[in-house]
Amino acid sequence: TWKEDLFESDKELLISYYKNKGYRDFYIVNEDIHLTNNGKGYEITLNVYEGPQYKINNITWDGNYVHSDKELMERLGFEKGNVFRDENFRMAVSEQVSPLYTDEGYFYFQINPLYIPIGLDSLDIHFEIVENQIVHVRKIHIKGNEKTYENVIRRILRVYPGDLFSRKKLMESYRDIFMLNFFENVVPDVIPVNDNEIDIQLE
Questions:
Q1: How many Å apart are CA 190 and CA 149, to the nearest integer?
Q2: DSSP class per residue in the chain
Q3: Strand 188-192 versus strand 197-202 pairing type
Q4: Lowest pLDDT segment from 12-16, 73-77, 172-176
Q5: Residue with more model confidence, 147 or 194
Q6: What is the DSSP string of 150-188?
Q7: CA–CA separation, 185 and 187 (whole Å)
Q8: pTM above 0.85, yes or no
Q9: Residue range 33-47: mean pLDDT, rounded
Q10: Of 35, 54, 113, 177, whose CB count within 10 A is highest?
Q11: Is the pLDDT of residue 38 over 90?
Q12: What is the pLDDT of residues 126-140, one digit of tens each?
């Protein structure tokens, strides 16, 4: 039986595979699908455009005052001449660079990479950063708890009222609460109160 959703998913995997090998212009030009001669399967032919394999030319930063260009480059882990691996690059930004800010109180931190093609197969990457102000935790609200005392949950939290906001500590608290098995699911929500304070709601 032909499964269109599975076929579409496989095509997305193929596209991701190529883009993570540096072929950011890759796309499927067309496709041909027909039954095999014995009628028991399908023969699939994909005509694709690979394009050039892109390498990183220059990486520049703007708007960073708390951390230097050198610090951010070291955390990013990419440098001039490296193959531009799309998924790996995005993961490095979100899991290596952003935590320098989001684990140190910068809840409103923003980072936006701009990709500028240079020649036929190179990229300049320019990061625009908005650090914004440091934010503290004002209150922590716990909702939907019917199986244990609230102080049991609060004891295992890794973030407390008055603390600097830390995405890492929030996600660790989420994990630890979920492992108590008192909740079918735990949904952490951050609620802005003002420019300098947020509330955390665990439900």
A1: 22
A2: ---HHHHHHHHHHHHHHHHTTT-TT-EEEEEEEEE-TTSSSEEEEEEEE-----EEEEEEEES--SS-HHHHHHHH---TT-B--HHHHHHHIIIIITHHHHTTT-TT-EEEEEEEEETTTEEEEEEEEE-----EEEEEEE-S--SS-HHHHHHT-S--TTSBP-HHHHHHHHHHHHTTTS-S---EEEEE-SSSEEEEEE-
A3: antiparallel
A4: 172-176
A5: 194
A6: HHHHHHT-S--TTSBP-HHHHHHHHHHHHTTTS-S---E
A7: 7
A8: no
A9: 87
A10: 54
A11: no
A12: 999 999 999 999 998
Token pair in block for residue 90: 């995005």
Whole-number Å distance between alpha carbons of 177 and 157: 8
Alpha carbon of 112 to those of 63, 92, 138, 190: distances in Å?
A: 11, 13, 28, 22
- Report yes or no: 198 and 190 within 8 Å, Cβ to Cβ: yes
| pLDDT, position 18 | 97
Residue 145, pLDDT above cutoff 80 = no
Length of the chain: 203
Q: Other CB atoms closer than 10 Å to residue 12's CB: what's the count?
A: 10
Residues 149-175: tens digit of each pLDDT: 667 778 888 888 999 999 999 888 888
Q: How far is CA 125 from CA 3, 58, 91, 176, in A?
A: 39, 6, 15, 38
